[in-house]
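User: Run a structure prediction on this.
Assistant: Running it now.
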Amino acid sequence: MVAEPLPIKPVRLILGLIACIGLVLTFLTLLFGFASIPANSVGVKTRFGAYHDIVNPGLAYAIPYIDEIHIVPTQRLLKLEFGFTSPNATNIYQGDVEPQETETMITGDLNTALVPWVVQYRITDPKTYLFGAREPEKTLRDLSESVLGIQIQQVQLATVRPPPAVQAAFNEVNQAQQEKQTAINQAWAVYNDAVPNARGQAKEREKQAEAYAFRRVNEAKGEAQKFSLLLAEYRKAPEITRRRLYLEAMQAILPNLQRKIIVDDSLKNILQTLPLLPADQTRTSP
């Protein structure tokens, strides 16, 4: 007697298939639904393309094909380059796609210069950063930081240089300015050397004048005092004082004369004069 196989009910078969598919989907969801968020970033979770919530750094879970986590580096200092592009940049928007047009500027004195620069910024609002503008890094070049959720930290100018067409003229102007500054520095050096010397000489002349005035005043006072003493003596003995003054004057005058002749009217003889020659002439006379 042969046993007949048990009939398989279609309902059970369908439920089994559904259960297997559910297990596979659950396994795949658990396998591919986790994402790791770096410590310097946050995750912005979207569900069906719309904003859902902010996910902190660490291991996060998102339902595959339903949720998506966008990593936003909020703790990093990002930068945009204008007029040049650095090689091996991690940010695809960092470099300038049109450096020649961007770095050409008109200065305040209406001169043309090539001015590359760097804008450093930090993302402060991840939600506004992702949904406030279609391309935040590109829009940053034109829009304000408050609209984008971006805070600009620093703007750094790189090496400023003139265009090649005016490089020679720029160098001549720069050289002229340097020569002007050199001449000014030399003039100040001469000034700093001459003015203190002139002031010192003027101070020295002033001291000499004061010393001369002090000496002349003292001499005048001495002469006046001497005259007062002579006047007192003259009043006591006029004749004697007069003769003394005469003899003192002759004593000071006669040695300076080269040839002297004394005339005596009291003598009645022929020789009324007495020539007095210096000692050296007396010896050489025949």
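The chain has three domains: 10-72, 78-161, 169-236.
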